[in-house]
Amino acid sequence: MKPAQFDYMRPERLEDAVALLSEVDANAKVVAGGQSLGPMLNLRLARPGRLVDIRHVPELRDVQADSKYFSIGATLTHAEIEDGAIEDFSGGLLPFVARGIAYRAVRNRGTIGGSLAHADPAADWVSTMAAMGAAIIIRGPAGERRVPAQQFLIGAFTSEVIATEILSAIELPRLSPTVRWGYYKICRKTGEFAKAIGVTIQDAQLGLFRILAGSTDGRPLLLARSAEVLASRGPEQAASQAREEIEETLTHIGPGHRQQLVVAVQRSLQQIALKEAA
Question: What's the predicted TM-score (pTM) here?
Answer without folding.
Answer: 0.94
